[in-house]
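Sequence and fold
=================
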Amino acid sequence: MVRNSGLGALLKVADFRKVWGVGALGGVVRWLEMLAFAVYVFDATNSPFLVALVSLCRMAPLALLGAVMGALADRFPREKIVLGGLIVMLAVSLVLAWLAYSDHLQIWHLVAGALINGCYWSTDMPARRTLLGAIAGSKRTAAAMGLDASTNSLTRAVGPVTGGLLIAFTGLEGALILGAGLYILAIILIASLPRQESGQTRPSVGMWQTLKEGLAYAVQDKAILGILIVTVIFNIWVFPFTSMIAVIGRDILDLGAFNVGLLMSMEGAGSFSGALAVAFLARPSAHARIYFFGAAFGAVCAIVFALSPLPLFSGLMLYLAGVGAGCFGSMQATRMLLLAPAEVRSRLMGVLAVCIGIGPIGYAHLGLMADWLGAVTAVTVMGVEALIAFALAWLFWPAIR
């Protein structure tokens, strides 16, 4: 466990740096591919729905597997779960790069790759982030999660810019090859991590029983259920708007691939700023308000972004939307890890992953509206729906406050 205080002390711990580094490398690849896939699919099909579909496939496994991964992380070494996922993702990136290079790549290949990527992403909350919190210790969980969230936010700035640059100059295969290289570095880091505690507390309890207990605990605890309610609202009605940034950038703002990547990176830059500010400045008494109002502020800025005809102002709105998302994201895992008892922590993080993974409903809703009404109107309608949902949650679920 970490005995010294502060982020500097955390970064002096080798095991913490390794797990944190795996998250940073995986985050760069995730957002690099998000932009690269979106630009490729939109240029090939001119269909906003298919762009949203690829993003939907990246999110869907979280809802299907998040709680299962939480149960597995209670029974098996978390670092081995992460390692296995990274090896699979490396293989996927190499296969897709070869298909793109040989001119055999089809849209369904990217859909399949996004689905497998989502399966790996479903291990992040219950395995990697829970492991990170365990290494940091309970007194430094907020600092550790704030640092990890801010780093993930930074990858949302670095990844799209890099993806746009590579798409413009090397094609999709260049982005995929870089992603494979980053996965190799992440594999080296996690493979060098010493054996950690699996989190298993009752070996005789089966996986499905641990899964059932995690879900039951989440339903009974009003504060934890409040975290899950806000998470569901954000991931259905707010976060999916990021899948339309490439469409609006290409179709409405008339930007090239690199500038679309630069535009998308502004949301990540804002998220980095918000998460870093929370890591350094947030007091425990303000955690709940930061979590809720950060999510709601992101919805407001998404609406203004959609209505903006000016690239610079659109970038500013994306930056501010990112600030809200960064405040929300940094508090999401922090509140869950601090409120959840140690014996059900991985399972509840898995349930949280399921609530994040319910986002495909929002991606499908947004994609269908975008094909029907246009991307601008679709994002605006989604943002208004989000604000209504947040208002209802605030009024009728006091534990959120």
